[in-house]
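Private note to self, pasted from the team thread so I don't lose it. Backbone tokens:
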């Protein structure tokens, strides 16, 4: 497991720290030492967030805070949209869950296969993270939303479960191909990926360039990166990020070995983690409490051993060369200006590799830009879909793709 690079989940580290705070129940000195170091790491990561939580604790009791979270869970509409379910089978037999939203009859074109928009979500999320985009596009276009392996309603990766395979971004690219074959076997495609989902699209392109060239009419990369993740500091000073990187491998091993204990710690430390989630999800403090709580639920739903299982794949991710496959089609590269997980500079580097792409940096937004500034994301996606339709920008010829003539 690499110590440098990757996109760690600060909240998962918080769960390790919470478990460390209850040492009398572990009975293992090695676990205590490791968890204590991990606790120090999350202390560094959550310094700013924890301060806000501490102030809240002075004014709002724990019971009241818990009731507020339950009220938001019961009344919030986010993540409630559902489509027609289906299952794709990955090359290792893992069942991948997807849902299809069909276009309304008056929005369908006759005489040709429909354009399908395929949404791929990010690390520790699921398809419901596209809630606002799903609401905006309902009935207007055929869309497929899927859960990456071991996330959401998809099956736990069989290769990972039985120890015969590890998670890689290339594996996720093959998973996406399986979903496309099952849910959209014909017709033009628009690919939309957030964070790990954008990396998944790059992996698809690197392994199946013919599929991109033949069927993809447009693509959007939201809050993602084509590589060099070892340089991400998560908004920390050099000393802080060095501490975090040094302890991450051990912390993730503990999350795998002591899953039940760490999950319990995560539940017990909900107040602290709420601040961590908010800091690393959003760029602004002025976020609808219902949306913030929805983001928490998405992140909480990913088991901590899955968090640990996926982590090494990011250190190996380098797909800048794969971006070249998308030359000649409309491409949107969009990121939150204050993204601490996949900084806007990574989107700028992608746009430099795709000079014809539209680069949009959303002022004040963080990593979950599609939840924080949905109107902006929806509008840009609408423009991209217009360009992807027959008569839009479409795929340019080879000379045009190279900027010749």
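Design output:
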């Amino acid at each position: 497991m690499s110590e440098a690079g990757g996109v760690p989940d600060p909240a998962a580290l918080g769960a390790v720290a919470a478990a460390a705070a209850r040492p009398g129940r572990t009975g293992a000195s090695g676990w205590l030492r490791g968890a204590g170091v991990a606790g120090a790491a999350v202390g560094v990561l959550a310094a700013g967030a924890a301060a806000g939580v501490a102030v809240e604790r002075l004014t709002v009791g724990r019971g009241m805070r818990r009731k507020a979270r339950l009220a938001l869970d019961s009344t919030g509409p986010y993540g409630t949209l559902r489509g027609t379910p289906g299952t794709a089978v990955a090359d290792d037999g893992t069942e991948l869950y997807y849902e299809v939203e069909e276009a309304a009859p008056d929005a369908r074109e006759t005489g040709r296969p429909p354009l399908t928009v395929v949404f791929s979500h990010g690390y520790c999320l699921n398809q419901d993270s596209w809630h606002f985009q799903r609401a905006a596009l309902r009935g207007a276009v055929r869309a497929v939303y899927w859960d990456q392996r071991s996330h959401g309603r998809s099956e736990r990766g069989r290769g990972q479960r039985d120890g015969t395979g590890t998670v890689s971004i290339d594996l996720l690219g093959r998973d996406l191909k399986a979903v496309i074959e099952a849910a959209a076997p014909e017709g033009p495609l628009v690919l939309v990926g957030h964070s790990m989902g954008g990396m998944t699209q790059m992996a698809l392109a690197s392994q199946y360039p013919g599929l991109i060239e033949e069927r993809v009419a447009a693509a959007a990369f939201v809050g993602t990166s084509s590589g060099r993740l070892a340089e991400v500091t998560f908004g920390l000073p050099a000393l802080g990020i060095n501490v975090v990187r040094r302890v991450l491998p051990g912390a993730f091993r503990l999350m795998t070995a002591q899953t039940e204990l760490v999950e319990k710690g995560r539940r017990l430390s909900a107040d602290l983690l709420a601040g961590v989630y908010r800091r690393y999800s959003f760029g602004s403090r002025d976020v609808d409490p219902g949306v913030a709580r929805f983001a928490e639920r998405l992140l909480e739903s990913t088991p901590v051993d899955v968090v640990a299982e996926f982590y090494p794949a990011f250190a190996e991710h380098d797909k800048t060369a794969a971006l070249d496959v998308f030359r000649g089609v409309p491409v949107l590269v969009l990121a939150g200006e204050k993204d601490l997980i996949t900084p806007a500079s990574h989107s700028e580097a992608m746009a430099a590799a795709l000079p014809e792409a539209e680069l949009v940096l959303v002022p004040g937004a963080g990593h979950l830009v599609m939840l924080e500034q949905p109107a902006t994301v929806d509008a840009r996606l609408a423009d991209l879909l217009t360009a992807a339709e027959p008569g839009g920008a479409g795929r340019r010829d080879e000379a045009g793709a190279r900027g010749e003539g």
